[in-house]
Structures are given as structure tokens and as C-alpha cells.
Amino acid sequence: MENQNPTLQTKPGKYAWFVVIVLFIVAAINILDRTMITTMRLSIKESIPMTEAQFGLLSSVFLWVYGFMNPIAGFLADKFSRVKVIIISMLVWSVTTLLTAKVTTFNQLLITRVVMGLSEACYLPAALALIMDYHKGPTQSRATGLHMCGMQLGGSLGFLGGYMAMNHEWNYGFKIFGIIGIAYTIFALCVLREAHNAPVGAVAVEEEPEDKEPFSFWEAFKHLFTNKAFVMLAIFWGVVGILGQIEAAWLPTFYQEQFGITQSKAGFFATACLNPAQMVGLLLGGTLADVWSKKNRYARILIPIIGVCIAAPAVFFASYTTILWVAVGFFMVYGMTRMFVDTNLMPIIVASVDKRYRATGYGLMNMFTTVLGGLGVLITGMLRDSQIELRAIFQIVSISLLASVIFLILIKRIVEKKDKEAAASNNNQ
Asked: Whole-angstrom Cα distance, residue 3 to residue 298?
């Protein structure tokens, strides 16, 4: 794994953290712009006639396009300038958000969701790869976790779209946040730099010079899928995504049916209680991994293992109990400890694959978790139609998540073997 050279332990400068803060806000806008449409269903349907299925299609189309675009987006970030990909991505989705306020038909609205999916997909792989360019040593996980907190914040603020639609016109939120996004894109363009153009002292010293040889998407794809550690990580992340998407889509319904509470209370427990726990988990998991990595170079793999070993049983017991607050508490524990995976995923990719393919690798990971998660949500609905309770579905998926830890253990062994071979090679020179 990394940290074999003392130079890699050099702390990044203030500008490296400034980059994370700038991207934190971009991430919040990214998630807010994509999710606020789900909070204004009635307002949109009053202005643009559509069926319930068509309204659902607006989210489904976004996820499909977003998922399949991610590997291409990652390749673009690896092949070209990460900063340019981030800026162009944000500009396009912000302009699209603003133009959404002008649509008058369902087909026009559907087109904006397609463009949103294409443009927003380009952001995350490039942003995380840029953060890794700046944070090469003992701050990788914390920097990743802080950035991910921006995404959680954006999701928490999604209600603003519905609030504005109730108090103004349905498209008011799209106007406001579209303009904010365009303005912030201009700011980001002025302050973001590639790591190799950063101020002196902003970036830790590289152990090896960056390989700038040109490569194709096929070369990146071939490298990643002949890498055992990457394939195992993709399978693991897919399982994590299945539970994550099922929880996001069905947790309010579970609370409502299991405990006989109102829709508004169920929504509160599923979001207002869970999101803060997830933000704590991102920061805690990142901090624990970075601190432990100073003594154990495999900490960024071990912390996710510990997190999943706590998160999976928490979901099982939450779905088993008949006491509301016990269930809410267990799901908060799940939300917190599951984020130990998210905050360390990109650092694990950094440790496992060629540095030229980091963003492509994350893009493929994002595609797997989006596509498999979407299938999980669909299959859950089909199982419910077959009269299978959500509590049973949560229990089955939680057991699968716990079993998937074996893939992280195998990844750790592969990375350990890789490090031993590298050490032996250096000793023979």
C-alpha cells in the first residue's frame, strides 16, 4: 500500500484543504440539483400533466444515464484535466437546472434529466481523483470523508425544492439553484488548479514521477478488470450499493408499515435521523483510518471491514425489533458505520490500481453500485408484490453485506503480497 516512502507522509498544505472545501460545496450543489425534483411531485404534476409512472421515470432515467456514463466520465478525468472536467460538468448541469425552469412538457423535462445524468456523472470521479492528487499520504481518508459530507448536506437540503414549489411556482427552485450553480462555477474556475500547478508546498512529494503516457479507454478497462483486487472491490461495492439503495428507497415505507406511524414521521426518521449519523461516520471513519494508517498501512482496508461488521448486524436487528426508537437507533448505527466504506473507497482504489486509472476505476465502481442498487430497489418492489415483508428483505440483504467482507479481506491479502514483492525487488537492486 502507500506510505512506503517518508516523503509521502508530508502533510499537504493549506491550499490542498482549500480544494476540498471548494469541492465540498460543489458536491452539495450536485446532489441538491438532482434530488430536489423528487420533493415537488404534486407541484410539478399540477403544472405538467403526467402519470405516476412518468414521474418515476424522471428519476429512473437519471440513474440509468448517470450510472452508465460514470466509467466514461472517469476516463475523461484520467485522460485530460481533472479541473476542466469538474468545471465543464458543473457548468452544464447548472445551466440545465436553470433551463429546467423553462420546460412546459413532460418530454422536455425528461430531456433535462438525461442531460443532468450525463453532466453530473462527470463530477464525482474527477473530484475524488483531484483530491487524491493533493492528499497523497496520511490525510486521504479525512479529505475524502469531508468531501462526501458535502454530498450528504446536499441530500439533506433537497427539501428546499419542495418548500419553494409550495410557496412560489414549481420551477422557482430550479431558477435559484441554477443561477447559484453558474455563479459558483465561475468562482471554482478561478480558484481550482491541477495538483502539478498548485502553490509550492500544497502537495506532498511524489514517490515516483507521474506517468504521462497516453492510453485508451480499452487499456484502462483491461488493466482494471485484470486486477484481482479491483474486481473484488467492485463486487463488494455492488453489494454495499444494493443495501444502500434499498434503504434509501424503502426505509420510510418500512417505518410506516412496521410501526404504524404517519408518512411525515416515517420520512423524518428515515432522513433527519440518518443523514447526520452518516456525516459523523464519514468524518469518523476517515479520521480513524488516517490516524491508524501511521502505524498500520492497511488501516484504510481494515476500517471498512470493522464498519461493515457493525453495520450489517445493525440493519438485521433494526428490522427485527418491534420498538420504533430501537430500530431508529440501529439504523443510525448502520448509517454511521457504513460510511466507513465510502470515506475509504477511493484510498483503497489508490492502493490497488495504477495511478493513471484512478478516476476510471471509481467511475466503474459508481456504475456498479448505481445499476445493481437500482435492480435491488426493483426486486424489492417485486418481492413486496409477492407479499414478502420489508423486514425479511432487510435481514437477507444485511446477511449478504456481512458475507461480502470476505472480499475486503482478500483485497488486503493481495495488497500485502504486492507490497512484499515490491520490497523484495527494492532490496535486490
From this structure: 10
